[in-house]
Amino acid sequence: MELRHLRYFVAVAEALSFTRAAQTLRTAQPSLSQQIRDLEYEIGTPLLNRDKRNVALTAAGKVFLDEARLVLAQADRAKTLARRAAESEAQSLTIGFVPAAEVKIFPQSLTLLRGLFPDTRIVLRSLTTFEQHQALLAGDIDIAFMRPPVDESLFASEVVLREPLVALLHIDHPACALDRVALSDLTDTPFLRIASRHAGNLAQLIDDLARRDGAELQAIQEVENVLTLLTLVGLGVGFSILPDYVEQLSFRNLTTRPLAGPEVRAELVAAWRHDNAKPEITALVALTRDALSERNQ
């Protein structure tokens, strides 16, 4: 039994005429009659009494008519709800970003994006670079703001921010007396950093910086996220090197110092799947690029 059988039966039952029902359904009368016979055969009882002039519902037909109407109404409702859900999904934008980077990325660009797409539901997800990569592949987020490298065969991408690296110190650390800090000034302090698989190329930048300064970083401890790292530095466990967005966060007992020598910058990349054509993505990338252009100078 299929929905078309129910629709055919309801049309005949309401018109009490195979001819008029066939016209309404825009189908041939012999085909309609065969569909009703198939339905009655499957149910195991006549639903209609018919002769050459009249069509009438049997007792079973009257009961079946009420139930068929309910089923058809429910099917139409299910179709409507499914379409609404699809439309809602199409009008949403899920944005991934490395933890704490939102303080630089979103204050201006998201406000402008909402003005351009007032009907789009925006969802923000704080994820490490590794987690964003996986979420993009799975289609769980539409766009990622993460650290390079980016697999260009899988994703389109654009660098939206280049942030100077700074030393993150406990306020009582002796190096706080310096205007600029070289890693060679910190070799007696345990070094804390984000786990390599979550940090993108940030770990490589720091390793290159240490080699440049001739510093051998001691007792390296890796943590899973930036908030844990900030907490540990605030407790005096060690120091870290992070992009300068950290200067906009409020944590007790923490301070930063610029790094000595030529400036080293960490890139933040917007990445999205090649097959994701949501216009909100293009707009957000452009808005973010414009909002951050002065900071990239």
UniProtKB/TrEMBL annotation:
One Pfam family in the UniProt entry: LysR_substrate
Any GO CC annotation of this UniProt entry: protein-DNA complex
Database matches in CDD domains: PBP2_LTTR_aromatics_like (cd08414)
Keyword terms: DNA-binding, Transcription, Transcription regulation
Domain (HTH lysR-type) ranges: 1-58
Database matches in PANTHER family: HCA OPERON TRANSCRIPTIONAL ACTIVATOR HCAR (PTHR30346:SF0), TRANSCRIPTIONAL DUAL REGULATOR HCAR-RELATED (PTHR30346)
Stated name of the protein: DNA-binding transcriptional regulator HcaR
Organism: Novosphingobium nitrogenifigens DSM 19370
Classification lineage: Bacteria, Pseudomonadati, Pseudomonadota, Alphaproteobacteria, Sphingomonadales
